[in-house]
Amino acid sequence: MATQSQADPELMDLEEEELWEIINKHRCKIVQRLSPGRLTPYLRQAKVLDAMDEEEILHCVKFSTRAMRLGHLLDLLHTRGKNGAIAFLESLMLVYPEIYTLITGKESNKEPNSLTRLIESSQLSVLLMNTLSSLQEELMQEKQLKGTLVRHLHKMREKQQQLKEEGECMRSIDGENQRLRREMDAQYQMLSKLKDEQYELSMRYSHALQEKDAVQSKNSELQEQFYSVKEELQRVRMELQAAQSSANRIKCDEYQALQKENRTLKEMLEGQNKLVKVDEPNKYSEETLPNSDELMTQLRTAKNIIAAGEASEKLWKEEKETILQECRHLQNNYDILKKKTEAFHDHVAELQNERDQAYRARDMVQAEISQLLNEKDSLRKQVMDHTECNTELKQHIRSLEAQLRIWMMRKDTENQDAAEHTYSCQQFKHQRLVRMDAIGPSDDGDKASPGSLPEDLASQANSGHNSCSSLHDEYISGLTKSCSSELPDLLETERTETDFEYEAEYKKGLEVLANMDIGDRSFDLGCHMSPVRRRYAQRMSSRVTSIAFQGDDLLRQISIIGGNRTGIFIHQVTQRSAADEMSLLPGYQIMAVDFDVMNPAYKVDLEGMTFEDAHCTLNRVNGFCCLSVRCNMDEYRKLLNNMESGMLSSGDSFYVRVNLSMAARVEGGLQVKCGDILHITNTMYNNRCQWFAHRVNPYTTKDGEAGIIPNYRQAQQQLITSIQRMTWQNGMPRMPKKHVRIISTDRCSSHLLWTSLNCGTCRCEEPTASSSLGRSCLTLMPYTVVTQHKIGVPRPVLLVPSLLGRILSDKLCTSKDFMRCDTGMCCLTRNISSCAGG
């Protein structure tokens, strides 16, 4: 080893411990800032390190980070004594002059005379020439890279401008989509108002019909009374006319007979008077006297008869006046009834006019509703078209982003290959291969692998295009954030505590992958980095996974089984369908379905839903959707075994109380009465909209007679029809009444039986962020969900009179085996609420 010179007397005068004490004061900064690959060439020329030491420093497996390698370098130089310290300071003076100034407090002097004799002048000249040539080559590479990056920057700016224009177009489309949604919500609100008005008009019409029936019945009764009074009046008139005609006829006959007799008497009297005057008066006086007495007697009798006839005539006149008064009274009553009847007919005519107006209003409302439905369909079609266009644009943006990332990684890989080739040609032509274990990336981003680049060339290559790469990274991160904020994640999993075990190493692995060219088929992954250490794959049965795909005619892609008790499972998957491409398998339990991933309000939870409701809900899916599934093979196999053995026909199981009496209308149907408790075991019996139920014994609570009953919608229609028939019974022939319990509830609330009244959640049931109906609609309930409660010990019930009950209660309360309960009356409201609640 050459002798030391006096180029720097102050440093040469210091002892070994003092020199290393000065270096160790700044050891932390030296380890953080310096790269051992740039210091080892000078140290080898100064002969304080050999080839084995250099290989151990740069490629030993134990030193995975740059700080560890530089620390080991300082430890080896410390074993070389004072020469190691002087050589290290001189290498700093040549490579890192600012660090040299920081340690020694002196400016670096690169003149040959200022160096010690640890390295010969010829070797130093060769080292400097090699270093100068390598720096010139690196400068040319950096210039070429700078030109390439500038051209790429221009291209990226053009693409950025194009993406901005596409983003503006997408935002305008999104705004138009939101506007159409708002218009659709407004149209739906108007449609609901029209439905409410139509319902009110129908109720008014039903009330008018009821009033019409009542008025018609009253009118018929009044008409019957009128006809009876009219017949009585006609009969009285006929009797009066008959009596008057008979009396007049008798009176006229008697009067004519009396007048005739009077005339004959007068004639006889005149004849006798003439004879008396002619003959001798005394001769016939004795003979005519008796004849005159007889005539006088007859005359008095005739006068009495005439007086009696006049009295009877007066009596008949009085009776005639009485009958005429009664006739006038009946005529007044008839006029009053006639006026009432005319008023009633006028009222009926007004009701008919109102009915015609209601019919015309109903027809107009129905026409408007049909027009609104057509407009709604057209708007829905436009929304679907815009959604497809939006999806295509987002996919195009993603493809452009992927192409940009691939192109950047290819350029970075080419630059790294060129730098590695240059360095291997100059320094490491005969480098020994070393087998190393796969390790994860280091904390500071350095790649500790056999094929990794040396630190001196890596730092030089990174320092040249630092500004351009930072600009590119900012652009890529901004573009990624914008796309990730607009597009939904295709796969989302619930994170558990085990997911954080290798999270740091996984993030470092992503940083390594970001600098690689995945598009270049000739690129060898093992030549540039080590495989990233990852944890073993585990199947978590409790983890819910969200899978988004194109679910056109979803029930043609998959078939389902299950029910509200077991859950909804995928049973079969059609090959080469979108569901098959997303790796959906039989045995996956469907937890929820999202009709529109851009709007979280369209998400429907399938947990606890019946098979009929789940089938109807999934049948509505016809487009891009998101399924939340969970692997639950044990429950799926258990359900399949039970269905194959005949123990179960589906996964449904719940109890309902029937609120109306229904006859068996189909083959195998079950006739039920109002108030029966049924156990529903299948809501899609024979793949039809009908339920299979068992009648529950009210005493043993066991399933009894079984059969088919209508589903909720059909039963609700029968309930409405029964109520309408009961309403019309007053105006129609008598029909046997059906036993009906009228129970209504708020349809906007969550309930097992009407989740799919409109094949899914109702529009009252479709709450969105932009439209929320402030009103709630009521619906009639043909079935009421009840819960089976098992009683361990039955309670005895005693029905006794009140007086005996008090005595018996006092006696039972004295016993320790009985406890007294507070007595009270159960109000009707409480009974109704308890019946409605099941």
Automatic annotation (TrEMBL):
UniProt key word Phosphoprotein: yes
The segment(s) forming the CARD domain are: 15-107
Q: Could you name the domain of life of the organism this protein comes from?
A: Eukaryota
The family database entries (InterPro entries) matched by this protein are listed as: CARD, DEATH-like_dom_sf, PDZ_sf, SH3-like_dom_sf
- What are the BP-aspect GO terms? regulation of apoptotic process
Keywords in alphabetical order, please: Coiled coil, Phosphoprotein
- Coiled-coil-forming residues are 177-275, 320-382
Gene Ontology CC annotation, any one: cytoplasm
Positions of the region Disordered? 438-465
Q: Does the keyword Phosphoprotein apply?
A: yes
Which GO molecular function, any one, fits this protein according to its record? CARD domain binding
- Name under which the protein is recorded: CARD domain-containing protein
Which organism was this protein described from?
A: Engystomops pustulosus (Tungara frog)
